[in-house]
Design goal:
This is Acyl-CoA dehydrogenase family protein. By secondary structure, the chain is α+β, with helices and mostly antiparallel strands. It folds into 3 domains: 113 residues, Butyryl-Coa Dehydrogenase, subunit A, domain 1, CATH 1.10.540.10; 112 residues, Butyryl-CoA Dehydrogenase, subunit A, domain 2; 144 residues, Up-down Bundle (Butyryl-CoA Dehydrogenase, subunit A, domain 3), CATH 1.20.140. The protein is 50% helix and 17% strand. The strands form 3 sheets. Strands 1-4-5-8 form a 4-stranded mixed β-sheet. It has a 4-stranded antiparallel β-sheet with strand order 2-3-7-6, covered by helices on one side.
Length: 383
């Protein structure tokens, strides 16, 4: 029989993150969101809790947990706010995991202990201004000149790339031509502050206002040849694998947002009165909340299954895509319904559901659009 009960360690982690989210994040995040300010004190607090090191081995300075533990933390954070959740998600799955999965012993020793404690954040430089979902359309180039890579190009929509904590960006770049005539794409570590590496002003975004996102440019940016991450020419394959496991983490974040909508609405319908009755007594509201809980619950089961297959070493590409698609749908639908239940108050940024509504849309775009997820599922079905 399938048993979805959490282990004692996972239960304790979930409870501690839930407490942190409600006591430390919830009271202040609205102000950060309104100012579009990166919440450095909250991020440092998450670092002290060990959240950035959850799936990092102990010998590398981490907590020695598993990827599912990261997902549980993301779900609980996103029940309160998605900006802090995506900061953690990107910091681990897109910042630390490439170093852990593909880094040399020296690269791991240099970066993983700092990444695991949240002392520094790593960023993931894949998307380009004209690339979008076509990650293979990389135009950024890196030419080996003696013992240095010379990088030229641009990246777009890069999370955690311009904070005071950002230590490096791992970028994909064309480093040559494959025997079949295609692009040879490699990944290279570019430390913050490297001459020729410019971080553009932060974007004015629809949502995730308290997270950090920038465009990046590289103009004859030189880094040591030893900054090549993994095998030359394997960058595209490396980042596809990183994105596949990252979809499970984003799914957990989406579930958290969907469940947060339920949480806020349950509180509100027990207080708000209309036509002489608490609105939670009306069947129309009850049915909305039943459907919202259904979406969150089924999306949670989807990411649990994908994470379980990943940890067992089984193929999980289809399950990760299903989880990402299901959670994105649940987040969007629940945010819309929550805003409707709150009425005019739901249109205000001062309410969590107003922020949930703004934050939900990016889940259908980031780390693989919903269309890409459908394409992956269809391919895994043999189509």
């Amino acid at each position: 029989m399938v048993d979805n009960r959490l282990s004692e360690e996972h239960e304790l982690l979930r409870d501690s993150v839930r407490t942190f989210a409600r006591k430390d994040v919830a009271p202040v995040i609205g102000d950060y969101y309104e100012r579009a300010e990166f919440p450095t004190p909250l991020v440092r607090a998450m670092g002290r809790m060990g959240l950035f090191g959850l799936p990092v081995p102990e010998q590398d300075g981490g907590m020695g947990g598993d990827y599912f533990a990261l997902c549980l933390a993301l779900e609980e954070l996103a029940r309160v706010d998605s900006s802090v959740a995506i900061t953690l998600e990107a910091g681990v799955s897109l910042g630390a995991m490439p170093i852990q999965r593909f880094g040399s012993a020296e690269q791991k020793a240099t970066w993983l202990p700092k990444l695991a404690t949240g002392e520094v954040l790593g960023a993931f430089g894949l998307t380009e201004p004209d690339g979008g979902s076509d990650a293979g359309a990389t135009r950024t180039t890196a030419v080996l000149d003696g013992d240095e890579w010379v990088i030229n190009g641009a990246k777009a929509f890069i999370t955690n790339s311009g904070t005071e904590l950002t230590g490096f960006v791992v970028v994909t770049a064309v480093t040559g031509t494959r025997p079949d005539g295609g692009k040879e794409i490699s990944t290279i570590i570019v430390p913050s502050g490297t001459p020729g590496f410019t971080v553009a002003p932060k974007y004015s975004k629809v949502g995730w206002e308290a997270s950090d996102t920038h465009a990046l440019s590289f103009d004859d940016c030189r880094v040591p040849a030893a900054n090549l991450l993994g095998e030359r020419g394997r960058g595209y394959a490396q980042f596809l694998s990183i994105l596949t496991e990252g979809r499970i983490a984003i799914a957990a974040l989406g579930v958290g947002l969907a469940q947060g909508c339920v949480d806020e609405c349950l509180r509100y319908v027990g207080e708000r009165e209309a036509f002489g009755r608490k609105i939670g007594e009306y069947q129309a509201i009850q049915f909305k909340l039943a459907d919202m809980e259904l979406r969150a619950h089924t999306a949670r089961l989807a990411y649990y299954e994908a994470a379980a297959r990943m940890l067992r070493g089984e193929p999980y590409k289809k399950e990760a895509a299903i989880a990402k698609l299901a959670s994105s749908n649940a987040a969007m639908d629940n945010a819309r319904e929550a805003t409707q239940i709150f009425g005019g108050y739901g249109f205000m940024n001062e309410t969590p559901v107003g922020r949930f509504y703004r934050d939900a849309k990016i889940l259908e775009i980031g780390e693989g659009t919903s269309e890409v997820q459908r394409m992956l599922i269809a391919r895994e079905l043999g189509l």
